[in-house]
Amino acid sequence: MKMTQLDRHCYSKVNNEWVIVKTYTLEYQKIPYNIATILECSRRLRQVLTPDLLTKKYRLENETNPMYGHCYHTTQAMFYLLDTHTLDPIKGRDWRGDDHWWLKDKENGFIVDMTADQYYSIDKEPPYDRGKVSSWYGWKQRPHKRTLDLITRLQMDSYLAVHCPILPR
Question: What does pTM read for this prediction?
Fold first, then answer.
C-alpha cells in the first residue's frame, strides 16, 4: 500500500534568515473516508490518548473526562489520515471559553468529531453552532508534533524520522 509523507519543519534564524534546522517526517497510510473507519479510529483513539499529549492546563479535568483537551491534535490527525479533500477544520468556542476543534465535510455537512464525548459525558453540547472554518494553530499551519505522535500511535506501520540539515555558519 502507498505511504503518504507529512513533514513538520522546525525553524531558526541564521544570518538573519529563517532556515529549517530540523524536519520531522512521518510516513503513514491514508485511511478510507467512511463511517466504518471513523468508528474504528474512534475506538482506537480511546486506547492511545494519554495525558502526555495534553497541554498542562487540560490535565486536571482530563483525569475525570478522558477526551477533554485532546480535540486539536485528534482533529488534525484525522484531517491528515482520512483520504478525502472535502473536510474543513472547524473551531468553535464552548461555554467555558475553550476552543473546540472538529472536521466538517464541505459537501454534505457531516461532522467528524472524535472527542465530542468530552461534552456529552457531562451533559453538554459541543459548540457546533458557533464553529467557523479555521486555520491550524502555529506558524505556517504546520502539523503539530503531538499530531505526528498520535498518528504514529494509531498506525503501528507508520514511521517517524528526524532530519537535521547541516547549517551554514
Answer: 0.93
